[in-house]
Amino acid sequence: MNAVETYIMKQGAVVEQLAAAAEQIPPDKAMWKPYPKALPWLRLIDHTSIGRRILVLKTLKGEPFEFPGCFFDEANHAKTPQDAAKAQRESWAALKAYLESQPADFAAREVAFTKGRTMKVEQLLWFAYDENLHHRGQAWIYARMNGLTPPAIWGTERPD
Q1: Can you list the domains of the chain with their CATH numbers?
Q2: Which of 8, 64, 128, 158 has its CA 20 to 30 A from that of 71?
Q3: pTM score above 0.85
Q4: Cα(85)–Cα(87) distance, rounded to whole angstroms?
């Protein structure tokens, strides 16, 4: 299994967990945040699909995008928890399809990233994976702070 195949396997699970987490956000708590400067609950989860759809996919395709403005543009934001779950799944389907269409040596290719930096495709994918894990952890804390049990990660969690 090469690096891209491993990424697809691991990232797919994280995306589905984030989508399930979005679906459990009570509509009246979508913009809840634990402190004033924090990302609201809905934006926290939606941030990962915006990053996947705009930052990662456009970087891989060599397409221009506005960074960091793409994260603040209201047109890119989900409006409801259900919209955020849908955006998770759709952004992942688009990225996965693109990755699966690339040649075997794609992971070793250099791509232009933000602020004039370059990196290998493999580095960009694992950067994005790590970012998603980070925000998944935050989303799980938000859920627990609101009395919810977040979706299972390892399959061994028991309800509270």
Answers
A1: 3-27+39-145 (1.20.120.450)
A2: 8
A3: yes
A4: 5
